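<context>
A single protein, sequence plus fold
<entry> Chain with its tokenised backbone below
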Amino acid sequence: MTDNKIRCALVYRLDANVGSSGGDEESGGIAMSDLGGTGVTLLAKYDHASEYETHRDSETLYGGRDKSYADAVGMVVGNDPPGAASEPGTLGGFRVVQSEVHQVVYGSDSDGLCLAVVTGLQYPTRTAIQMLCELHGAFSEQFGLQSKSATTDSLTRKSKSLLKSTCAKYDDLSSVDKASSLVDKVDAVKVQMQDNISAMLENTEKAESLAERSDQLNEQAAVFKKKSGVLRKEMWRKDLKMKIILVLLVGGILAAILVPLIMRMQGK
């Protein structure tokens, strides 16, 4: 699983000419013969990944706790040394070596001081190089003279605060990489737009649902109106029949009463 996190920062001294492939001497760290002819001495290291995760054993450039990541990166540097910087006091000749999960970015100055950083594959290479250049300036200023004769791993404790603060600074991409910050903002806008579109679609669905219900109510009202008209006519007819029946009934009663009286009066 790849990510955009910083794993570790390392500082080496290249004891042979930068980029050379000859020689069979040994440096204070790893044997030159094991590194294709370039002597690589580890001066300082900082395991930044230990601040946020547990190492996993793997066959990648950055292994578990039972594997020296500093030696593994040192072998990478020795097998493919960085080119010499074009200007004294600057870092250059950068190399990028990738595994399935991590990448190693490293470069060196004209004095053979080599800095490397191991990151996840999604970490921007340009930002890793920016970090190494900044770290190189601060490290050279504080430990430049010592690094020329320092023994293996002798500057790790002294430079820990510098390495730690630099890793922490560059682990937050939004604060050091404008492009990453812009991408984050664009992603945030995308998310907001997607939320707005989802809300709009939801409102549209609700409006369509209300429109359908309104149409149904209108249809029901039309049916009710039609039925009420029919019912009103039927009631009117029934009412008329009742009136006719009442009139006939009353007329019959009156006739039954008045006719005999009239006939009696005529007889007298």
User: Anything to note?
Assistant: The two ends are 130 Å apart (CA to CA). The CA atoms of residues 179 and 203 lie 35 Å apart.
